[in-house]
Amino acid sequence: MEIKYDNNGLVPAIIQDATTKNVLMLGYMNEEAYKKTIETKKVTFFSRSKQRLWTKGEESGNFLNLVELKNDCDNDSLLIQVNPAGPTCHKGTGNCWGEDNTPNYGFFSTLEAIIAERVANKDTAKSYVASLFSKGINKVAQKVGEEAVETVIEAMDNNDELFLYESADLLFHYLMLLQAKGFTLKDIEAELKGRHK
């Protein structure tokens, strides 16, 4: 792999969780750190403050286990996908921006958080979600069934706009049912991964 190191013999290395796709940290490698990373499968950096090689986790045990290493289009920065063995940041957080390293499903994660917040607020007068939850799990499950039937009906028709509308309704209500049962998309992902061979 061709790597263009800067005038100090370093290249930036962006560390990304191979599973969650979250960016965990930024470090720098020299040629020796790069070679050691490839050889040991543990991400090793060149510490600019200590002026020596530094394998992440050498003291804490929170290693960054190498999954894949890519070079960018200009060969002057690396994207390193890892399986972290514990928190990445020395402050104990999942990444160096003070955040947990949890899966993010884009807008679906936002929607899960909105549903949870509205359920917690219990404002049945202003929130459809709170109102439906207040009627109990049977009503939530019934609504998922209704939306599933409507989605199937629209799937057999030629109106793609209505099919997408009903599909969105189904998914929205399904997210509510998951929460009513104490689960999230993360649990569904784990189940599907367990089935994947």
TrEMBL record:
<keyword id="KW-0378">Hydrolase</keyword>
<dbReference type="GO" id="GO:0004635">
    <property type="term" value="F:phosphoribosyl-AMP cyclohydrolase activity"/>
</dbReference>
<keyword id="KW-0547">Nucleotide-binding</keyword>
<dbReference type="InterPro" id="IPR021130">
    <property type="entry name" value="PRib-ATP_PPHydrolase-like"/>
</dbReference>
<dbReference type="GO" id="GO:0004636">
    <property type="term" value="F:phosphoribosyl-ATP diphosphatase activity"/>
</dbReference>
<keyword id="KW-0067">ATP-binding</keyword>
<comment type="similarity">
    <text>In the N-terminal section; belongs to the PRA-CH family.</text>
</comment>
<comment type="pathway">
    <text>Amino-acid biosynthesis; L-histidine biosynthesis; L-histidine from 5-phospho-alpha-D-ribose 1-diphosphate: step 3/9.</text>
</comment>
<keyword id="KW-0963">Cytoplasm</keyword>
<dbReference type="InterPro" id="IPR002496">
    <property type="entry name" value="PRib_AMP_CycHydrolase_dom"/>
</dbReference>
<feature type="region of interest" description="Phosphoribosyl-ATP pyrophosphohydrolase">
    <location>
        <begin position="108"/>
        <end position="197"/>
    </location>
</feature>
<comment type="similarity">
    <text>In the C-terminal section; belongs to the PRA-PH family.</text>
</comment>
<dbReference type="InterPro" id="IPR008179">
    <property type="entry name" value="HisE"/>
</dbReference>
<keyword id="KW-0511">Multifunctional enzyme</keyword>
<dbReference type="InterPro" id="IPR023019">
    <property type="entry name" value="His_synth_HisIE"/>
</dbReference>
<feature type="region of interest" description="Phosphoribosyl-AMP cyclohydrolase">
    <location>
        <begin position="1"/>
        <end position="107"/>
    </location>
</feature>
<protein>
    <recommendedName>
        <fullName>Histidine biosynthesis bifunctional protein HisIE</fullName>
        <ecNumber>3.5.4.19</ecNumber>
        <ecNumber>3.6.1.31</ecNumber>
    </recommendedName>
</protein>
<dbReference type="GO" id="GO:0005737">
    <property type="term" value="C:cytoplasm"/>
</dbReference>
<dbReference type="GO" id="GO:0005524">
    <property type="term" value="F:ATP binding"/>
</dbReference>
<comment type="pathway">
    <text>Amino-acid biosynthesis; L-histidine biosynthesis; L-histidine from 5-phospho-alpha-D-ribose 1-diphosphate: step 2/9.</text>
</comment>
<dbReference type="Pfam" id="PF01503">
    <property type="entry name" value="PRA-PH"/>
</dbReference>
<dbReference type="InterPro" id="IPR038019">
    <property type="entry name" value="PRib_AMP_CycHydrolase_sf"/>
</dbReference>
<keyword id="KW-0368">Histidine biosynthesis</keyword>
<dbReference type="Pfam" id="PF01502">
    <property type="entry name" value="PRA-CH"/>
</dbReference>
<keyword id="KW-0028">Amino-acid biosynthesis</keyword>
<feature type="domain" description="Phosphoribosyl-AMP cyclohydrolase">
    <location>
        <begin position="25"/>
        <end position="97"/>
    </location>
</feature>
<dbReference type="GO" id="GO:0000105">
    <property type="term" value="P:L-histidine biosynthetic process"/>
</dbReference>
